[in-house]
Write a structure and sequence with these properties.
Blueprint: E1 8-11, H1 32-50, H2 60-63, H3 68-78, H4 91-107, E2 110-113, H5 117-121, H6 125-141, E3 145-146, E4 149-150, H7 151-163, H8 182-191, H9 206-220, H10 229-234, H11 240-253, H12 255-303, H13 311-352, H14 366-415, H15 418-423, H16 432-468, H17 486-537, H18 543-559, H19 561-576, H20 589-620, H21 624-637, E5 644-645, H22 647-656, H23 663-673, E6 681-682, H24 683-690, H25 700-710, E7 716-718, H26 719-725, H27 728-737, E8 749-751, H28 754-760
Antiparallel strand pairs: 1-2, 3-4, 5-6, 7-8
Helix pairs in contact: 1-6, 1-11, 3-4, 6-11, 8-9, 11-12, 12-13, 12-14, 12-25, 13-14, 13-20, 14-16, 17-18, 17-19, 17-20, 18-20, 19-20, 21-22, 21-24, 26-27
Length: 765
């Protein structure tokens, strides 16, 4: 090409059609090869439209000279009526008609510079080709839009997207990228794979490839042959305008398919959102049912207060309870946390896609699960207290029983032979001196008996306490200890005292060992809870930075789990040693467990809140500055500093923003921000309310319009059409939910009307 800065063909100031390299030089001749390609291409393009009006042109510079076919061409391609043409054959009649055509072009936002009706009437080839190119740009290329690019760039991007999967095709321009014919064949094959066997094409046969594309396009796609294969192959750089003009015909030929593809994509997008939401709903219902069923089955086991008679049996109950706390309950804690996260994520996605809030089945609300869990933990706490009380009782019983046996043994030893002695009549044959000696001996016995009476009362008191504590055994003569000489009891008692000292010292070491760890872990948990709270309300960084910080906290918490496990081991040793008090710490294992579970739940819930905030930000296009403003306002009115506003605080916040609130209006707003009647407003709900009008989502009307495109504007769509236009899973999803179109009385047509739209938007469920 040769160019001149004085000549340009452009739109208005906002949208320029032609860049300097597209300009035509009015003083120098076109490259002969390019002029030949343009004459052929532009002529064929014009005829593809003129034939709709029953006419055509033979010579592009001659047949437009009177302006009549030029005006007709513009009427056909625009669908509008131009002013009535002049019928005369004089030069001024021709100029008037051409000016009417040029004025119409200008009325479409095209600014024509240095091109006049006289030059067209005079048959100036270069100016005529320039005018036709301007028409092609305006009516065939300008409105092409692909992924925020338009006109030439949009057409190029469309070609790149469509041919990307094909071997030996790399579309970078509208000249040499098309010389081997493979790009044209790829375009056809992408939309009509039945027309070309792409696998049989060869890169080293460009003329064969080009002619294949030209012939198939003309025969099956109604695209006339606008180029010669030999001209393209033998020209070092084919004419860009000729190639663009021809390729634009493919774009428009496939426009219906593109429109259907766009409609199908919109439907698929809506269906995908709905399917994902349904999956989350089903998962919630399933997880809620399983968790509630587990709670229902676990509570009776924890409510069972059947005492055991032996310490070993009660210690087994305690071991079973430890397994419950250590093995069976933790996964359920995680499930409960995940259930809340799933619920919050689902509600956020429903709000962002303008769907109504999810209402779980009766008895499966988050609040229902929270109440059931609270009841479980109350029963659990009572069960543990009962276990420890029972173990203390059995320990006391064993101690008393042993004491009873020992005292009874000693008393039995003392009474042995005493009855025979008292029954003896040795005094009958005794002298007075001997009688006096027997009397002194008897008096001594009476004194000794009085002393032993206290021991008997002690034994009786022990027996009474055993009965009161529901001692399971009866001490018979056979169960009583064999009397031991005093010389054996002394060393035995010494041994028992030494063992007790060792036991008490070991218990003290266990107490100190547990306390040392608990006094570190307890404050660590509290500190992490406070730090997480600070991160979640921090407005210094972006949401991604908050997320990274929270993920680091989460990893640190996971890594800290070994310390909790070690403390559980120390606690188990303490319980096995029947240690139930510890003056060295205020933390019990129960405190640590509850704190740890709260920490795990808090970090997971906080991460989920930030994830939902990111979803909201991206869906509604909220800037970081806006988010910071929302957070600052929320924090200011979050007077309890717990990440939530109560209704009075929320009302004060709205009033500070200029809302004129009556009771009815505030009640309406509260139903939006607290649909589950929790009595608080979370930051996520606050953001949703403040940005409720800004999300870009597909409306029911848009979805309906997309279905009508797939149905060729019918009020129903067939099963075959659904299966042809949509992926299999989503096609079957629609078929299973759309109601039959009753007017046709057939199972193959399905109404596009209310049901599918109502279903997709959860107006019925």
């Amino acid at each position: 090409h040769f160019f001149n800065k004085h000549t340009s063909y452009m739109m208005n100031e906002e949208h320029q059609y032609m860049t300097p390299e597209d300009e035509w030089d009015r003083d120098l001749l076109l490259d002969p090869a390019w002029e030949k390609q343009q004459r052929k291409t532009f002529t064929a393009w014009c005829n593809s439209h003129l034939r709709k009006a029953g006419t055509q042109i033979e010579n592009i510079e001659d047949d437009f000279r009177n302006g009549l076919k030029l005006m007709l061409l513009l009427e056909v391609i625009s669908g509008e009526r131009l002013p009535k043409p002049d019928k005369g054959k004089m030069r001024f009649h021709k100029i008037a008609n051409v000016n009417k055509a040029l004025d119409f072009i200008c009325s479409k936002g095209v600014k024509l510079v240095s091109i006049g009706a006289e030059e067209i009437v005079d048959g100036n080839t270069k100016m005529t080709l320039g005018m036709i190119w301007t028409i092609i740009l305006r009516f065939a290329i300008q409105d092409i839009s692909v992924e925020e690019t338009s006109a030439k760039e949009g057409l190029l991007l469309w070609c790149q997207r469509k041919t990307a999967p094909y071997r030996n095709v790399n579309v970078q321009n509208f000249h040499i990228s098309w010389k081997d014919g493979l790009a044209l064949c790829a375009l056809i094959h992408r939309h009509r794979p039945d027309l070309i066997d792409y696998s049989k094409l060869k890169k080293d046969d460009p003329i064969g490839n080009l002619n294949t594309a030209f012939e198939v396009a003309e025969k099956y796609l109604d695209i006339p042959k606008m180029l010669d294969a030999e001209d393209i192959v033998n020209t070092p750089k084919p004419d860009e305008k000729a190639i663009m003009t021809y390729v634009s015909c493919f774009y428009h030929a496939f426009a219906g398919a593109e429109q259907a593809e766009t409609a199908a994509n919109r439907i698929c997008k809506v269906l995908a959102v709905n399917q994902e939401n349904e999956k989350l709903m089903e998962e919630y219902e399933k997880l809620a049912s399983e968790l509630l069923e587990w709670i229902r089955k676990t509570i009776p086991w924890l409510e069972n207060r059947t005492a055991e008679h032996h310490m070993r049996a009660m210690q087994q109950k305690l071991e079973d309870f430890r397994d419950y706390r250590r093995i069976h309950k933790p996964p359920r804690v995680q499930e409960k946390c995940q259930l809340e996260i799933n619920f919050n994520t689902l509600q956020t996605k429903l709000r962002l896609s303008n769907r109504p809030a999810f209402m779980p089945s009766e008895g499966k609300m988050v609040s229902d699960i929270a109440n059931a869990w609270k009841g479980l933990e109350q029963v659990e706490k009572g069960y543990e207290e009962w276990l420890l009380t029972e173990i203390r009782r059995l320990e006391r019983l064993d101690h008393l029983a042993e004491k009873f046996k020992q005292k009874s043994s000693l008393h039995q030893s003392w009474t042995s032979g005493k009855e025979e002695l008292l029954s003896m009549k040795d005094y009958e044959s005794a002298s007075l001196m001997e009688i006096r000696a027997l009397m002194r001996k008897h008096e001594a016995f009476e004194s000794d008996l009085a002393a032993h009476q206290d021991r008997v009362e002690q034994i009786a008191a022990i027996a009474q306490e055993l009965n009161e504590l529901d001692y399971h055994d009866v001490i018979s003569d056979g169960d009583q200890c064999v009397p031991l000489p005093v010389k054996h009891l002394v060393p035995l008692r010494d041994q028992m005292l030494q063992e007790e000292v060792a036991r008490q010292q070991a218990n003290e070491r266990l107490r100190r060992q547990f306390a040392a760890q608990a006094n570190i872990i307890g404050p660590w948990i509290q500190t992490k809870m406070e730090e997480i709270g600070h991160v979640s309300v921090d407005i210094a960084g972006s949401l991604e930075e908050q997320m990274n910080n929270l993920k680091q906290y989460e990893q640190n918490i996971i890594n800290y789990k070994s310390n909790i496990d070690k403390l559980e081991g120390d606690h188990q040793l303490s319980q096995e040693s029947l240690i139930f008090d510890n003056k060295h710490t205020n933390y019990t294992m129960e405190h640590i467990r509850v704190g740890w579970e709260q920490l795990l739940t808090t970090i997971a819930r906080t991460i989920n809140e930030v994830e939902n905030q990111i979803l909201t930000r991206d869906a509604k296009g909220i800037s970081q500055e806006q988010l910071n403003e929302f957070r600052a306002s929320f924090n200011h009115f979050d007077r309890k500093r717990n990440g939530m506003m109560d209704p009075d605080d929320f009302r004060a916040c709205l009033i500070s923003m200029g809302y004129d609130l009556g009771e009815v209006e505030f009640a309406r707003i509260m139903t939006l921000v607290d649909s589950n009647n929790t009595g608080v407003v979370t930051f996520q709900a606050f953001i949703d309310f403040m940005t409720r009008e800004t999300a870009e989502t597909d409306t029911a009307d848009q979805v309906m319009a997309s279905f009508k495109i797939l149905a060729s504007d019918k009020s129903y769509i067939t099963v075959d059409e659904l299966r042809r236009e949509l992926p299999p899973e989503q096609a079957e999803y629609c078929i299973s939910r759309m109601t039959r179109y009753t007017e046709l009385h057939t199972t193959l047509e399905w109404t596009l009307a209310s049901y599918i739209i109502m279903y997709l938007y959860n107006q019925v469920h």
